[in-house]
């Protein structure tokens, strides 16, 4: 509808030299848009981009939609006695609408093709087993029109050398873990009988520790539990150990698009006012640089340079967590920490893709080394991109973590965020972060 509105404005400009529509043409716009909405409802494939129809079919669908629209609109013009409408304006409207919709379809096609070839959508997968479920799964994925998947091979202890798929066997199940690490495997589909609990638990733990999605694809009617996430890929049943909304490409693209827009807005409109004031205050408070840079573990434990405003006096203990009444913190630094303003430079990290506006907070490298050994599921929080603010922080779990159970609560909320992510959840966390900045937090030091 937005494109049609723009097309009407453009057509009116071409025909009459002004953008504003008269009352008569405003009514005609409503009629034109309503008919297009009806036509697109019957021809929903006009707006479909996930199937990647052949180009000639997409063009044919679009032309058919315009033809049906023109017939219905002509009938409405006759019925409602609108013959006095400018035929030239109508022609301009159809041409501009076709042009804008065509450009938008092309832009969406190119965007999806870009994301299909990028790290956000491209995934390598292997199948454990070579029974009927494994072969059916391979055939289903192989015939799927959606791009972005690459089959890397089967792993089985009972290979059939006479099978047409024998050349695709990469090794035994014992070879799977090493192969996954060497070839950057993203997904493992387990099609063997589910009675080997020890093997499944081992592969699940390996997948979690190495940021690999583990799927069980057997006849699971006897093992269905409420805790697992069950779904069908066409007619193939699958079990995911946990719900992961950000596994879906559309959700990741939506989140990344918001991150770029939000961080650009902060950088362009807030930074020119705030940064000079904060920089001057930091310089006056103590000698040293304005910004503090530190390596932090990000998504899949990849290290990145995290930017903050310097809140401490220059020291050699940067890997030590800040404590209450920490003598290293300056008076200006205490205010910046209390109001979260010290985190503002991290919007550059968001723009660069190292961080997100919302996500698990990036801990110190020393904390990663320590807590990954003593807290179950700690590494899971690095399945997603770290954030400037997070669900744990707005739920009261921020500041110093003297005891292990405090970090366990953070991890618990980080995992809850991963399993329950939604765009509205991000909006709620951002609102609560701003609200906490206004009212102040006792654990912010």
Automatic annotation (TrEMBL):
Family statement drawn from the similarity comment of this UniProt entry: Belongs to the bacterial sugar transferase family.
EC main group: transferase
Annotated membrane topology: Multi-pass membrane protein
Residues of the signal peptide: none
PANTHER family: COLANIC BIOSYNTHESIS UDP-GLUCOSE LIPID CARRIER TRANSFERASE (PTHR30576), UNDECAPRENYL-PHOSPHATE N-ACETYLGALACTOSAMINYL 1-PHOSPHATE TRANSFERASE-RELATED (PTHR30576:SF0)
EC number: 2.7.8.31
Domain Bacterial sugar transferase intervals: 255-438
Main location: membrane
Name by which UniProt lists this protein: Undecaprenyl-phosphate glucose phosphotransferase
Subcellular location: Membrane
Transmembrane segments: 25-47, 59-82, 88-111, 260-282
Keywords from the named record: Membrane, Transferase, Transmembrane, Transmembrane helix
Record's keyword annotation contains rRNA processing: no
GO MF assignments: undecaprenyl-phosphate glucose phosphotransferase activity
rRNA-binding among keywords: no
């Amino acid at each position: 509808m937005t494109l049609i509105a723009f097309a009407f404005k453009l057509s009116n400009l071409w025909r009459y030299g002004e953008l504003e529509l008269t009352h008569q043409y405003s009514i005609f716009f409503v009629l034109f848009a309503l008919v297009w909405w009806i036509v697109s409802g019957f021809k929903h494939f006009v707006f479909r981009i996930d199937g990647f129809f052949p180009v000639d079919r997409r063009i044919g669908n679009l032309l058919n939609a315009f033809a049906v629209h023109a017939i219905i609109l002509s009938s409405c013009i006759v019925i409602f006695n609108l013959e006095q409408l400018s035929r030239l304006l109508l022609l301009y409207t159809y041409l501009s609408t076709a042009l804008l919709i065509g450009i938008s379809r092309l832009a969406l096609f190119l965007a999806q093709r870009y994301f299909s070839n990028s790290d956000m959508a491209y995934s390598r997968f292997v199948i454990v087993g070579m029974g009927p479920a494994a072969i059916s799964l391979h055939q289903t994925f192989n015939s799927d029109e959606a791009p972005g998947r690459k089959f890397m091979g089967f792993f089985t202890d009972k290979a059939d050398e006479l099978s047409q798929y024998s050349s695709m066997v990469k090794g035994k199940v014992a070879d799977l873990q090493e192969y996954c690490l060497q070839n950057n495997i993203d997904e493992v589909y387990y099609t063997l009988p589910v009675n080997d609990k020890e093997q499944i638990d081992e592969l699940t733990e390996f997948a979690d520790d190495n940021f690999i999605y583990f799927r069980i694809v057997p006849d699971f009617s006897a093992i269905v539990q409420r805790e697992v996430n069950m779904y069908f890929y066409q007619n193939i049943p699958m079990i995911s150990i946990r719900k992961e909304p950000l596994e879906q490409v559309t959700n990741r693209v939506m989140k990344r698009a918001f991150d770029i827009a939000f961080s650009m807005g902060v950088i362009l409109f807030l930074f020119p006012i705030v940064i000079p004031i904060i920089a001057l205050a930091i310089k006056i408070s103590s000698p040293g640089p304005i910004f503090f840079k530190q390596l932090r573990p990000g998504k899949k434990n990849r290290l990145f340079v995290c930017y903050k405003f310097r809140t401490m006096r220059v020291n050699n203990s940067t890997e030590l967590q800040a404590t209450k009444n920490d003598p290293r913190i300056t008076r200006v630094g205490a205010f910046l920490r209390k109001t979260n303003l010290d985190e503002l430079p991290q919007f550059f990290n968001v723009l660069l893709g190292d961080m997100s506006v919302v996500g698990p907070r990036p801990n110190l490298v020393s904390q990663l080394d320590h807590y990954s050994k003593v807290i179950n599921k700690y590494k899971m929080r690095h399945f997603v991109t770290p954030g400037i603010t997070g669900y744990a922080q707005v739920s009261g779990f921020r500041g110093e973590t003297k005891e292990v159970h405090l970090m366990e609560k953070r991890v618990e909320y980080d995992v809850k965020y991963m399993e329950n992510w939604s765009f509205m959840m991000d909006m709620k966390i951002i609102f609560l972060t701003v609200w906490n900045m206004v009212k102040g937090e006792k654990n912010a030091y």
